[in-house]
Structures are given as structure tokens and as C-alpha cells.
Amino acid sequence: MKFNFEQVHNYYERLVFEEVARRASEPAHHDFSADMLADVACLALNRLPVRYVRHDVDMMFYMTEQERKTIEESMQQVLEFSFAFVLERTARSAR
Q1: Strand 9-10 and strand 52-53: pairing?
Q2: Distance separating alpha carbons of residues 22 and 72, to the nearest angstrom
Q3: Which residues contact 21 (CB under 8 A, 6 or more apart)?
Q4: CB 86: neighbour CB atoms within 10 A?
Q5: Is the C-alpha dihedral spanning 42, 47, 50, 54 positive or negative?
Q6: What phi, psi does 65 have (nearest 5°)?
Q7: Which tens digit of pLDDT belongs to each residue from 43-76?
């Protein structure tokens, strides 16, 4: 029997990567290097629950509106923390 796990991924990965890229274009984050943005994404993903899926649409189909809202709020909080944390640590190490 052959196994194919290539479709399996953490649901939050794409969401976090897209949001980090979107926020990177904001003036407040123009000074973030590619390495800093990768650190933000890693920190954010490590602070969110892990939800493995094969297809994102499957998860969206089975979620309630409240669950979607909770996910969005959690992501916003985690990303705000992650950007601030990476910026602070980078500034501290540059001293």
C-alpha cells in the first residue's frame, strides 16, 4: 500500500504566511528583513494551535461562524505579539 501525505499540512501555515507578507508591506514593518519575517511566522505558528488538514476548504466547511471569528482574533493577537517580539529582540541584539 502506498501512502501520500503531501497534502497534509497545518491549516494555519498559509494563513500566517499570507498575513505576515501582507503586514510586511505596511510602513510599520518596512524595516523587517526576510529573516525577521520568517522569525515572525515561526513564532506566530508556535503560539497557535496545530490543526492538520488535507484541504483547507474541508476545515472551513465544518467550522461555525464563531470558530472562524475566534481563529481570526487569535491570529491577529499572535501576529501583533510576534512582530513586536521580533522587533524588540532584533533591536536589543543590535545594541
Answers
A1: antiparallel
A2: 15
A3: 37
A4: 23
A5: negative
A6: -60, -40
A7: 999 999 999 998 888 787 888 999 999 999 999 9
Q: Identity (one letter) of the amino acid at 85?
A: F
- DSSP assignment of 9-53 equals EEHHHHHHHHHHHHHHTSGGGTT--HHHHHHHHHHHHHHSPP-EE
pLDDT at 42: 98
Instruction: Say if CB 78 and CB 48 are below 8 A apart.
Output: yes
| CB of 95 closer than 8 Å to CB of 41 | no
Give me 32's grid cell: 523587517
Q: Which three cell numbers stand for residue 17?
A: 504566511
Contacts 24+ apart (CB under 8 A), 33-40: 36/86, 36/87, 36/90, 39/82, 39/86, 40/79, 40/82, 40/83, 40/86
Does the structure show a pLDDT above 80 at 30?
A: yes
